[in-house]
Fold this protein.
Amino acid sequence: MLRVEAVTKRFGGLVAVNDVSMHVEAGAIAGLIGPNGAGKTTLFTLISGFEQPTSGRILFEGKDITGRKPEALALMGIARTFQIVQPFAGLDVCENIAVGAYLRHAGRAEALAKARAVAAKVGLGADLDKPAASLTVAGRKRLELARALATEPRLLLLDEVLAGLNPSEIRDILPVIRSVRASGVTILMIEHVMQAVMSLCEAVHVIANGRTIARGTPAEVVGDSKVVEAYLGHGAARRLSAEASHG
Ligand SMILES: Nc1ncnc2c1ncn2[C@@H]1O[C@H](COP(=O)(O)OP(=O)(O)OP(=O)(O)O)[C@@H](O)[C@H]1O
Protein backbone atom coordinates (compact mmCIF):
# COMPACT_ATOMS: atom_id res chain seq x y z
CA MET A 1 0.00 0.00 0.00
CA LEU A 2 2.79 2.40 0.99
CA ARG A 3 6.35 2.06 -0.19
CA VAL A 4 9.18 4.40 0.81
CA GLU A 5 12.25 3.88 -1.37
CA ALA A 6 15.69 5.17 -0.32
CA VAL A 7 14.25 8.45 0.95
CA THR A 8 16.62 11.14 2.23
CA LYS A 9 15.66 14.56 3.58
CA ARG A 10 18.26 17.23 4.33
CA PHE A 11 17.61 20.49 6.15
CA GLY A 12 20.75 22.44 5.28
CA GLY A 13 23.60 20.39 6.72
CA LEU A 14 21.34 18.18 8.84
CA VAL A 15 20.24 14.84 7.39
CA ALA A 16 16.91 14.26 9.16
CA VAL A 17 16.02 11.14 7.12
CA ASN A 18 18.87 9.17 5.64
CA ASP A 19 18.23 6.59 2.93
CA VAL A 20 15.15 5.07 4.57
CA SER A 21 13.21 2.33 2.79
CA MET A 22 10.08 0.79 4.27
CA HIS A 23 6.74 -0.60 3.24
CA VAL A 24 3.36 -0.93 4.86
CA GLU A 25 1.02 -3.73 3.84
CA ALA A 26 -2.63 -2.94 3.09
CA GLY A 27 -4.76 -3.63 6.15
CA ALA A 28 -1.87 -3.46 8.61
CA ILE A 29 -1.26 -1.46 11.73
CA ALA A 30 2.45 -0.70 11.40
CA GLY A 31 4.60 1.16 13.93
CA LEU A 32 7.35 3.70 13.34
CA ILE A 33 9.50 4.04 16.43
CA GLY A 34 12.85 5.51 17.42
CA PRO A 35 14.42 7.90 19.92
CA ASN A 36 13.66 11.65 19.97
CA GLY A 37 14.91 13.44 16.88
CA ALA A 38 15.24 10.16 14.92
CA GLY A 39 13.38 11.59 11.91
CA LYS A 40 9.96 9.96 12.41
CA THR A 41 7.84 13.09 12.09
CA THR A 42 9.95 14.24 9.13
CA LEU A 43 9.17 10.95 7.39
CA PHE A 44 5.43 11.56 7.97
CA THR A 45 5.84 15.09 6.64
CA LEU A 46 7.37 13.63 3.46
CA ILE A 47 4.74 10.91 3.03
CA SER A 48 1.92 13.43 3.48
CA GLY A 49 3.48 15.96 1.09
CA PHE A 50 4.17 18.83 3.52
CA GLU A 51 7.86 18.63 2.56
CA GLN A 52 9.59 17.09 -0.45
CA PRO A 53 12.31 14.45 -0.11
CA THR A 54 15.81 15.52 -1.15
CA SER A 55 16.09 12.14 -2.90
CA GLY A 56 14.23 8.84 -3.10
CA ARG A 57 10.66 7.91 -4.02
CA ILE A 58 7.37 7.37 -2.23
CA LEU A 59 4.71 5.10 -3.74
CA PHE A 60 1.10 4.82 -2.62
CA GLU A 61 -0.98 1.99 -4.04
CA GLY A 62 1.62 1.54 -6.76
CA LYS A 63 1.65 5.21 -7.86
CA ASP A 64 4.67 7.44 -7.47
CA ILE A 65 3.44 10.26 -5.20
CA THR A 66 6.81 11.88 -4.57
CA GLY A 67 6.48 15.66 -4.61
CA ARG A 68 2.66 15.74 -4.66
CA LYS A 69 0.93 18.37 -2.51
CA PRO A 70 -0.90 17.54 0.74
CA GLU A 71 -4.34 18.35 -0.73
CA ALA A 72 -3.77 15.99 -3.67
CA LEU A 73 -2.56 13.26 -1.32
CA ALA A 74 -5.54 13.76 0.99
CA LEU A 75 -7.83 13.29 -2.02
CA MET A 76 -5.94 10.12 -2.93
CA GLY A 77 -6.65 8.82 0.58
CA ILE A 78 -3.72 9.72 2.85
CA ALA A 79 -4.53 11.46 6.14
CA ARG A 80 -2.28 12.38 9.02
CA THR A 81 -2.69 13.58 12.57
CA PHE A 82 -0.35 16.10 14.15
CA GLN A 83 1.67 15.60 17.30
CA ILE A 84 0.61 18.98 18.64
CA VAL A 85 -3.16 19.05 18.59
CA GLN A 86 -4.57 22.48 17.83
CA PRO A 87 -8.34 22.40 17.39
CA PHE A 88 -10.15 25.48 16.09
CA ALA A 89 -10.99 26.83 19.54
CA GLY A 90 -13.89 28.96 18.37
CA LEU A 91 -15.67 26.00 16.73
CA ASP A 92 -17.55 23.20 18.43
CA VAL A 93 -16.46 19.56 18.20
CA CYS A 94 -18.76 18.74 15.28
CA GLU A 95 -17.58 21.73 13.23
CA ASN A 96 -13.95 20.85 13.95
CA ILE A 97 -14.45 17.34 12.59
CA ALA A 98 -16.36 18.75 9.61
CA VAL A 99 -13.19 20.63 8.61
CA GLY A 100 -11.90 17.21 7.49
CA ALA A 101 -15.23 16.18 5.97
CA TYR A 102 -15.31 19.20 3.59
CA LEU A 103 -12.60 17.44 1.57
CA ARG A 104 -15.25 15.16 0.04
CA HIS A 105 -18.54 16.86 0.99
CA ALA A 106 -18.96 20.37 -0.32
CA GLY A 107 -22.30 21.03 1.38
CA ARG A 108 -22.38 22.07 5.03
CA ALA A 109 -25.22 19.69 5.95
CA GLU A 110 -23.44 16.72 4.39
CA ALA A 111 -20.12 17.59 6.02
CA LEU A 112 -21.77 17.93 9.44
CA ALA A 113 -23.57 14.60 8.97
CA LYS A 114 -20.27 12.94 8.12
CA ALA A 115 -18.68 14.61 11.17
CA ARG A 116 -21.42 13.27 13.44
CA ALA A 117 -20.94 9.73 12.11
CA VAL A 118 -17.17 9.89 12.66
CA ALA A 119 -17.61 11.40 16.15
CA ALA A 120 -19.70 8.40 17.15
CA LYS A 121 -16.95 6.04 15.95
CA VAL A 122 -14.24 7.70 18.04
CA GLY A 123 -16.37 8.10 21.17
CA LEU A 124 -17.09 11.83 20.85
CA GLY A 125 -20.79 11.37 20.12
CA ALA A 126 -21.82 13.01 23.39
CA ASP A 127 -19.49 16.00 22.91
CA LEU A 128 -20.61 17.22 19.49
CA ASP A 129 -21.93 20.59 20.64
CA LYS A 130 -19.15 21.35 23.11
CA PRO A 131 -16.54 23.97 22.28
CA ALA A 132 -13.40 22.13 21.14
CA ALA A 133 -11.41 24.17 23.65
CA SER A 134 -13.33 22.53 26.51
CA LEU A 135 -12.10 19.01 25.66
CA THR A 136 -9.55 17.22 27.86
CA VAL A 137 -6.22 16.14 26.31
CA ALA A 138 -7.72 12.70 25.66
CA GLY A 139 -10.75 14.32 24.02
CA ARG A 140 -8.53 16.47 21.81
CA LYS A 141 -6.60 13.40 20.69
CA ARG A 142 -9.88 11.77 19.68
CA LEU A 143 -10.86 14.97 17.91
CA GLU A 144 -7.60 14.96 15.95
CA LEU A 145 -8.21 11.33 14.99
CA ALA A 146 -11.80 12.16 13.97
CA ARG A 147 -10.74 15.14 11.82
CA ALA A 148 -8.34 12.87 9.93
CA LEU A 149 -10.94 10.09 9.60
CA ALA A 150 -13.50 12.55 8.27
CA THR A 151 -11.36 12.90 5.13
CA GLU A 152 -12.16 9.18 4.49
CA PRO A 153 -8.56 7.98 4.20
CA ARG A 154 -7.30 4.60 3.10
CA LEU A 155 -3.95 5.24 4.82
CA LEU A 156 -3.88 6.97 8.20
CA LEU A 157 -0.64 8.33 9.66
CA LEU A 158 -0.94 8.72 13.44
CA ASP A 159 1.71 10.90 15.07
CA GLU A 160 1.83 10.04 18.77
CA VAL A 161 -1.91 9.94 19.37
CA LEU A 162 -1.29 8.34 22.76
CA ALA A 163 1.24 10.89 24.05
CA GLY A 164 0.04 12.71 27.16
CA LEU A 165 -2.66 10.13 27.93
CA ASN A 166 -2.80 8.22 31.21
CA PRO A 167 -2.90 4.39 31.21
CA SER A 168 -6.68 4.16 31.44
CA GLU A 169 -7.13 6.70 28.62
CA ILE A 170 -4.69 4.68 26.51
CA ARG A 171 -6.60 1.47 27.28
CA ASP A 172 -9.83 3.18 26.18
CA ILE A 173 -8.49 4.46 22.85
CA LEU A 174 -6.80 1.22 21.68
CA PRO A 175 -10.12 -0.38 20.63
CA VAL A 176 -10.93 2.78 18.66
CA ILE A 177 -7.67 2.41 16.69
CA ARG A 178 -8.41 -1.29 16.12
CA SER A 179 -11.91 -0.48 14.89
CA VAL A 180 -10.50 2.07 12.41
CA ARG A 181 -8.32 -0.67 10.95
CA ALA A 182 -11.25 -3.10 10.95
CA SER A 183 -13.17 -0.57 8.86
CA GLY A 184 -10.53 -0.97 6.12
CA VAL A 185 -8.06 1.81 6.91
CA THR A 186 -4.35 0.94 6.90
CA ILE A 187 -2.48 2.60 9.77
CA LEU A 188 1.13 3.70 10.21
CA MET A 189 1.71 5.05 13.71
CA ILE A 190 4.56 6.88 15.39
CA GLU A 191 4.38 5.86 19.02
CA HIS A 192 6.55 6.03 22.09
CA VAL A 193 4.19 4.00 24.30
CA MET A 194 5.77 0.59 23.70
CA GLN A 195 3.01 -1.33 25.42
CA ALA A 196 0.58 0.05 22.85
CA VAL A 197 2.96 -0.71 19.97
CA MET A 198 3.28 -4.28 21.23
CA SER A 199 -0.47 -4.69 21.46
CA LEU A 200 -1.49 -2.95 18.21
CA CYS A 201 1.23 -3.36 15.59
CA GLU A 202 2.08 -6.40 13.50
CA ALA A 203 5.21 -4.80 12.07
CA VAL A 204 7.55 -2.17 13.43
CA HIS A 205 10.17 -0.05 11.68
CA VAL A 206 12.85 1.48 13.90
CA ILE A 207 14.87 4.54 12.95
CA ALA A 208 17.64 6.36 14.82
CA ASN A 209 19.58 9.40 13.60
CA GLY A 210 17.58 9.28 10.37
CA ARG A 211 18.56 5.72 9.50
CA THR A 212 16.72 2.40 9.68
CA ILE A 213 18.27 0.30 12.43
CA ALA A 214 15.74 -2.53 12.69
CA ARG A 215 12.45 -3.85 11.36
CA GLY A 216 10.30 -6.82 12.34
CA THR A 217 7.57 -7.78 14.75
CA PRO A 218 7.38 -5.75 17.99
CA ALA A 219 8.86 -8.70 19.91
CA GLU A 220 11.77 -8.94 17.45
CA VAL A 221 12.68 -5.26 17.58
CA VAL A 222 12.53 -4.87 21.36
CA GLY A 223 14.91 -7.81 21.64
CA ASP A 224 17.34 -6.28 19.11
CA SER A 225 20.51 -4.95 20.75
CA LYS A 226 20.80 -2.10 18.19
CA VAL A 227 17.37 -0.87 19.27
CA VAL A 228 18.20 -1.12 22.98
CA GLU A 229 21.42 0.83 22.36
CA ALA A 230 19.67 3.52 20.31
CA TYR A 231 17.30 4.19 23.19
CA LEU A 232 19.64 3.67 26.15
CA GLY A 233 23.10 4.49 24.78
CA HIS A 234 26.11 2.68 23.44
CA GLY A 235 26.95 -0.50 25.39
CA ALA A 236 23.53 -0.63 27.04
CA ALA A 237 22.55 -4.01 25.57
CA ARG A 238 25.81 -5.55 26.83
CA ARG A 239 25.42 -3.94 30.28
CA LEU A 240 21.81 -5.09 30.56
CA SER A 241 22.59 -8.67 29.61
CA ALA A 242 25.59 -8.70 31.97
CA GLU A 243 23.36 -7.43 34.81
CA ALA A 244 20.72 -10.03 33.96
CA SER A 245 23.26 -12.86 34.03
CA HIS A 246 24.63 -11.66 37.39
CA GLY A 247 21.15 -11.94 38.78
N1 LIG B 1 11.77 21.92 9.16
C1 LIG B 1 12.94 21.58 9.72
N2 LIG B 1 14.05 22.34 9.57
C2 LIG B 1 15.22 21.97 10.13
N3 LIG B 1 15.42 20.85 10.86
C3 LIG B 1 14.35 20.07 11.05
C4 LIG B 1 13.06 20.38 10.50
N4 LIG B 1 12.20 19.38 10.86
C5 LIG B 1 12.91 18.52 11.60
N5 LIG B 1 14.19 18.92 11.72
C6 LIG B 1 15.26 18.19 12.42
O1 LIG B 1 15.29 16.88 11.90
C7 LIG B 1 15.59 15.94 12.94
C8 LIG B 1 14.51 14.91 13.01
O2 LIG B 1 13.34 15.48 13.58
P1 LIG B 1 11.95 14.76 13.70
O3 LIG B 1 10.98 15.73 14.29
O4 LIG B 1 11.59 14.15 12.41
O5 LIG B 1 12.27 13.60 14.73
P2 LIG B 1 11.26 12.65 15.52
O6 LIG B 1 11.83 11.29 15.38
O7 LIG B 1 9.88 12.88 15.05
O8 LIG B 1 11.43 13.14 17.01
P3 LIG B 1 10.39 13.21 18.24
O9 LIG B 1 10.15 11.81 18.68
O10 LIG B 1 11.16 13.99 19.24
O11 LIG B 1 9.16 13.91 17.74
C9 LIG B 1 15.78 16.74 14.21
O12 LIG B 1 17.16 16.98 14.39
C10 LIG B 1 15.02 18.03 13.91
O13 LIG B 1 15.55 19.10 14.65
